[in-house]
Amino acid sequence: MEGLGEEKLNMEVTMKKNEDSHSGPVWNLAELLERVDNDQELLRDLLNIFKEDFPLTMRSLESAVAAEDLENAARLGHTLKGMLSSLGGMRTAAAAARLEVIASAGETASLKGALDALKCEAASLLPELEAYMAEVRH
Amino acid sequence: MKILIADDDALSRRLLEKTLERAGYEVTAVENGKQALEQLAKLEGPRLALLDWVMPELDGPEVCRAVRKRSERTYVYMVLLTSKGTKEETVLGLESGADDYLTKPFNAEELRARLRVGERILLLEDRLVEARENMRFRATHDPLTSLLNRGAIMDLLARELHRSHREKKSTTILLGDVDHFKRVNDTYGHVVGDEVLIEIANRLIGSVRSYDFVGRYGGEEFLVVLNSCDPAFALGRAEELRKSVSNHAIQTAKGSLSLTMSLGALLSSDWGPRPVEELLHEVDTALYKAKASGRDCLRMAQPITRTEPETAPLLQPARLRR
Q1: Which residues of A touch B10 (CB under 8 A)?
Q2: CA Rg value for chain A
Q3: Which positions 98-117 of A are in contact with B (Cβ < 8 Å)?
Q4: Neighbour count for residue B55 (Cβ, 10 Å)
Q5: Quick check: B18 and A87 CB within 8 A?
Q6: Which domains does chain B have, with CATH numbers?
Q7: Cβ count near B316 (within 10 Å)
Q8: Which residues of B touch A82 (CB under 8 A)?
Q9: Using an 8 Å Cβ cutoff, are B125 and B75 in contact?
Q10: Which of B18, B104, B108 lies at the smallest CB-CB distance from A82?
Q11: Strand pairing of B77-82 and B100-103?
Q12: Interface contact flag, B104 A11, Cβ < 8 Å
């Protein structure tokens, strides 16, 4: 059992390292355009869904972190990770992934820091998305 | 082709939906595992499914396990969508019954390619099922008339007799033989003889209910099993079958032929639990009596009871003698 626990810890450390990608663009538009086959209408749809869902999920996550509700924090971190990576926001997705790993591992003490890091990455991403939406609207 | 997407993330769902619609799929999108299972349980439901790993209600692997438990249903090709990437999780996903997995965020080209693999597997499964069904049909049906063959109808009869005895109902067994059929073959040839047998088979099938059985028992002999048949109506229904042959001439390549059929009949409720072979022997004897009585008629097989003289008229059903 002890061995398995160690293995899990090593795996998490590896994941953290992999996801610790502070380099690279905040938003990888080129990758997203490839994913949507250059369909601008679909891209707008996705951005609109994101604009609606992201703040709601973030608020729920903040409440879960405040209440030290690890299970929900992990679940919401996972949801955000999926949402952000589908949209090409890889740095913010990595921050969400870190939070998910921390919550799953029961590291309550690190949770708040992980949330702040996620918010910080989101603060760089959101203006880029807004700017793009404003641009395509005109 | 129909495909199911199950993902609780609206963004991911929309992206998948559009990507797959563009690839020509008929998409159904749901947001949790329970809804996914409901869609996959439908008779004409999707046979390709993309399931997110983490979902409310039931997660992806749980949906896979539930689908695989229903072994009698057609195969569903399931792909798990996961942002999990460890070998342990991949193994867990595949062992839950998934056929493949794809890591999020997916690449559209890779997704389409993997689904084409799924389509190939499903096509292969369809061909296997079709081949198996063809073999099953050939093993249980007469190649000339497409009626049940002797072995198949005997099996069904045995099962039906058990059931009717258990449920205290009656099964009517009819054995019909085309009168003077040899003359048809001798006079017009076997091709015409075959035409006659096919037409009689069609008439018999057309005269019974969908849950009755009609089989080719031998050359020109047909066995009909009327399931859960009220004894009060059995004679009338047997007469209808006889008349279905004699009422209209049969059109053949060599002209129209008027033919008749003699029938032996037996009501299982008159006999109680007996082996199939024994009951069939009794019906055969009744048929022989119909032939001896001038053909184109029906005779009932009745058990001889101690209270009755052996010369009791054999032509009346048991209920009339009571």
Answers
A1: 49, 53
A2: 16
A3: none
A4: 23
A5: no
A6: 2-139 (3.40.50.2300), 150-321 (3.30.70.270)
A7: 12
A8: 9, 12, 52, 83, 104
A9: yes
A10: B104
A11: parallel
A12: no
Q: Determine the residue of chain A that is closest to B19 in CA distance.
A: A36
Cα–Cα nearest to A46, from A58, A59, A32, A56: A32
pLDDT in tens, B5-47: 999 999 999 999 999 999 999 999 999 999 999 999 998 899 9
B5: nearest Cα among B95, B107, B80, B108: B80
Token duo for residue B130: 């079709």
Residue B231 contacts residue B171 (beta carbons within 8 Å):
no
Provide, as residue numbers in chain B, all residues whose Cβ is less than 8 Å from the Cβ of A49: 10-11, 14
**B16/B195 Cα distance (integer angstroms):** 57
Interface predicted TM-score of the whole assembly (ipTM), two decimals: 0.76
Whether B15 sits inside 8 A of A86 (CB atoms) is yes
Across the interface, do A35 and B107 touch by the CB < 8 Å criterion? yes
Give pLDDT tens digits for A109-124.
999 999 999 999 999 9
Chain A with chain B: Cβ pairs closer than 8 A: 60
Residues constituting chain A: 138
Cα–Cα distance measured from residue B159 to residue A18, given in angstroms and rounded to the nearest whole number: 65
Q: Tell me the shortest Cα–Cα distance from A85 to chain B, in angstroms.
A: 6
Please tell me whether residue B229 adopts helix, strand or coil conformation.
Answer: coil
Q: Are B114 and B100 in contact (CB under 8 A)?
A: yes
Type of residue at B267 = L
Q: Is the Cβ pair B108, A34 closer than 8 Å?
A: yes
Is B220 in the active site?
yes
Note the residue count of chain B: 322
A102: tokens are 């921390």
B217-227 per-position pLDDT tens digit? 999 999 999 99
**Pairing mode, if any, of strands B172-178 and B261-267?**
antiparallel
Identify the structural domains of chain A with CATH numbers, from first to last.
Answer: 2-137 (1.20.120.160)
